[in-house]
Amino acid sequence: MRLSFILAAVVIAPLALAGCGSDKPTRLYVLNATAEQPAAMSSQGVALGIGPITLPKYLDRPQIVMGVSANQLSQANLDQWGGDLNDNMTRVLATNLSNLLGTDRISFYPWSNRAPLDFQITVDVAKFETEADGATVLSVFWSIVNPADGTVLEMHRSTYRDAGKGAANSTAGAPAATGSYDAAVAAMSRNLGLLSHDIAAAIQARKAS
Q1: What class does CATH assign to 26-208?
Q2: What is the mean pLDDT of the chain?
Q3: Signed CA dihedral, 98, 103, 109, 112: sign only
Q4: Which residues lie closer than 8 Å to 50 by C-beta, 6 or more apart?
Q5: Cβ(166)–Cβ(198) under 8 Å?
Q6: Preceding amide of 52 cis, omega within 30
């Protein structure tokens, strides 16, 4: 009887320890707009339709994905996006463009309203993560489209690299420290801000021509 009790205790103890380990809180992160809002916004400014933005399947998940090597990725199970990454990117891009162009006239894809649009912005993301050396990379194919007939007015391929201290993984692929994930997401926001500046410049050039 005593032996059975000891064996039961030996089995239960590791389970209890495993249960304690699973109680660690999940840390949530969001991208943020980097372009400052102008003093005056115009309800008569350029009308933009934002989206769709498409992500690679390996990024379409709650966990933040980091690069370990050229062919290996790791995911941070306790460090996750605070919502859908695609939705977060779309709204941050829209806010940046609204601020850079000084316009209130923003619609999100798929738009159900019948508000007239001057341009539609589509973005296909090829890469959006922090690499093993700590640099954060955003690589995209983006287009400016005539929403009236779907004609593609411009097509671009752009890559942005923030070499600041990101979330570099160890050689074993272990997750980075919490502060590094925060720094990595901030760098990702800056890269998205650079993309926003390029799109805004292209739109301004078209409006001026």
Answers
A1: alpha beta
A2: 85
A3: positive
A4: 90, 93, 94, 97, 106, 107, 108, 109, 120, 121
A5: no
A6: yes
pTM of the model: 0.83
SS (H, E, C) 72-104: EEEEEEEEEECCCHHHHHHHHHHHHHHHHHCEC
CA distance 89 to 103: 19
- Collapsing DSSP states into helix, strand and coil, what is residue 15? helix
Q: What digits encode the pLDDT tens for the residues 161-196?
A: 998 754 444 333 334 445 689 999 999 999 999 999
**pLDDT at residue 16 tops 70:** no
Q: What is the 3-state secondary structure (H, E, C) of 176-195?
A: CCHHHHHHHHHHHHHHHHHH
Rounded Cα gap, residues 67 and 41, in angstroms: 40
Query: Are 89 and 112 within 8 A, CB to CB?
Result: no
Of 143, 136, 159, 31, give the one whose Cα is nearest residue 92.
31
Contact call for residues 40 and 102 (beta carbons, < 8 A): yes
* Residue whose tokens read 């799109």: 199
Report the pLDDT value the prediction gives residue 132, as an integer from 0 to 100: 87
Tokens 């050396």 map to which residue?
133
- The residue count for the chain: 209
Q: Which two tokens stand for residue 94?
A: 């829209």
Where do the structural domains in the chain lie, given as residue ranges? 26-208
* Tens of pLDDT, residues 28-62: 999 999 999 887 787 789 999 999 999 999 999 99
